[in-house]
Design goal:
Blueprint: H1 2-15, H2 17-27, E1 33-34, H3 42-69, H4 71-76, H5 100-116, E2 119-120, H6 121-137, H7 152-161, H8 172-177, H9 184-194
Parallel strand pairs: 1-2
Family: Belongs to the sterol desaturase family.
Subcellular location: Membrane
Organism: Arabidopsis thaliana (Mouse-ear cress)
């Protein structure tokens, strides 16, 4: 766990570069991010949040999958995070223990989405804050078993098999692209429901 904390703390200053750059782009009006409520519409607000989350989920799935499939990227970037590959070596600190460039690559979808989907600045900042909490929670090995959430049970499988459960917030992308592996406890509950 101390190594996880060390790796996370060493990378943390680099992680701050992407939000700083995205803030600069937002302040200069280069994105679709807005800060006023002049033309506020609740329906569109929730629609845009949903579109933003689907887009981010899709992009993070593919970035994460390519970090595994492209051997150079895995060896030089993502392997740092996958040193923690057993349930007893995972902790919330492992969720932040990335090579700096790996962490930035997996966060870039949040910035790309700002150029595509109109979203309020406070919503964007809140989602970035929640991102840190989410990343820690899927590495804590406490599986909440709430469908379709990509909980720690799914992500622990990812850390032990390396070829399943690349999704971020949900299991939908893994289900759509055939990389989903359900935790054993859930498989058992699905079998009970079928009986």
């Amino acid at each position: 766990m101390l190594l996880q904390i060390y790796v996370a703390m060493k990378a943390m200053p680099w992680y701050t570069l992407l939000p700083a750059v995205s803030e600069y782009m937002i302040e200069h009006g280069w994105t679709k991010c807005y800060s006023t409520l002049d033309h506020f519409n609740w329906f569109l607000c929730f629609l845009y949040i949903a579109l933003y989350l689907v887009l981010v989920e899709f992009m993070i799935y593919w970035v994460h999958k390519e970090l595994h499939d492209i051997k150079f990227l895995y060896k030089h970037l993502h392997a740092t995070h996958h040193m923690y590959n057993k349930q007893n070596t995972l902790s919330p600190f492992a969720g932040l223990a990335f090579h700096p460039l790996d962490g930035i690559l997996q966060a870039i979808p949040h910035v790309i989405a700002l150029f595509i989907v109109p979203i309020h600045l406070i919503t964007h900042l809140s989602l970035l804050f929640l991102e840190g909490i989410w990343t820690a929670s899927i590495h804590d090995c406490i599986h909440g078993n709430i469908w379709p959430i990509m909980g720690a049970g799914y992500h622990t499988i990812h850390h032990t098999t390396y070829k399943h459960n690349y999704g971020h917030y949900t299991i939908w992308m893994d289900w759509m692209f055939g990389s989903l592996m359900v935790p054993l406890a859930e498989k058992d509950s699905f079998k009970e429901k079928e009986k």
